[in-house]
Sequence to fold (327 residues):
Amino acid sequence: MLRLHPYVYHRPRALEEALELLERHAGDVLPIAGGTDLVPNMKHKLFTPGHLVALRGLPELRGIELRDGHLRIGAVESLHDLSVHPLLREHAPALATACAAVSGPQLRRMGTIGGNVCLDTRCTYYNQTLFWRKALGYCLKKDGEICHVVPGGTRCVAAHSADTPPVLMALGASVDIAGPEGLRSMPLSRLFTSNGIWNRRMEATEIVVAVDVPLPSAGLRMSFQKLRPRGSIDFSLVNLAVVARLDGEGVVMELEMVISALGSYPRRIGKVEEAAAGNRLTASVIDAVAEQAFRQCHPLGNITTDAEWRRAMVPVLVRRALQEIAA
Fold:
C-alpha cells in the first residue's frame, strides 16, 4: 500500500485567504481542488508538501456563464458538469467532448477544469513509485541529473497529457490567474513552456481562477480527437483539437490545429491552413492537411507506447477531425 505523508490541510473560505496561505507556506505548500492527479503523485512521493490549500470551496472559482462575448468557466467546475452543460454543448462542443474524454466517470466528477489546465507533465521514468525511481537513479524531473528519454539531454521532456488545453488553445481561450500581485489574464497559448519540470508561466503562489472562451463566430466548427490504449481511464497518447471556419458553401476560411502529448506543451501545427484555405474539405484536401501534420509531429519516447506508431496515428486523427467538421 502506498501511504500519504503527514501534512496540514487548509480550507480557506475566500480567494484572498487561499492566496495568503500559499504565500505564507511558500516552498512547502500546494493547492488542491479535485486531487485526482495530485494525490496519486503524493503517494509516489513526487510531491511531499507539508501543507495543502483546498480550492473547491472558494466561491470566486465557481460558475459557468456568458459574459461580455465570452464563456466564462470557474476553475473548480467539475469536468463532468462541463461535459454535459448546455452552454458548452452549444458554444464549445469540442471542449465538452474533451471534458468527457478525461479518465473515467468517478474521476471526472472530482477533477476540475483548472486542475486539467495545470496538469503536471508525465513520463515513463517519472510517474513511478519512489522504490522504482530510486532503483533507476531518478531523472531530471525529480531528484536526478539524467534524462532517460533523451540521453545526454539537459532539459526535461515529460509529456503534456491534459485533454482540455488543446481545445482551449484552438478556440483562443485565456486564463485568469490570481496571485500576491493581484489578478492577471493570459492567453492559454502563452501559458505553457517547453520545460517539462514546470511547464507553466505561473508562480507556485498563484491560482487559476477562471477560463474565458470567446464565443464562436458564424461558420466555426470544431472537433476533438483523443488516442489512448483504452476507451477510458488512460492518459492520452495523442490529443488533437481542430477548429475551422467555413463559409456558406463549405469553403475553408480559417483552420487551426493544436496537438499535445507529444512533448512538454500543446503546440499549434503550422502550415495546415495553407493546405486547406480557399478549398472545400474534399478527400484530397484532407489528405494534404494530414500529410502536413505528419511531417511536423515527432513524438518522444516519454510514454510507454511506441513513438513511431503514435506519429503514424497523427494523420489518422487529423482525417477523423476534418471529416467530422466537413460533415
In short: The first helix runs from residue 15 to 24. Residues 1-53 form a domain with the Uridine Diphospho-n-acetylenolpyruvylglucosamine Reductase; domain 2 fold (CATH 3.30.43.10). The mean pLDDT is 97. Residues 179 and 206 are 4 Å apart (CA to CA).
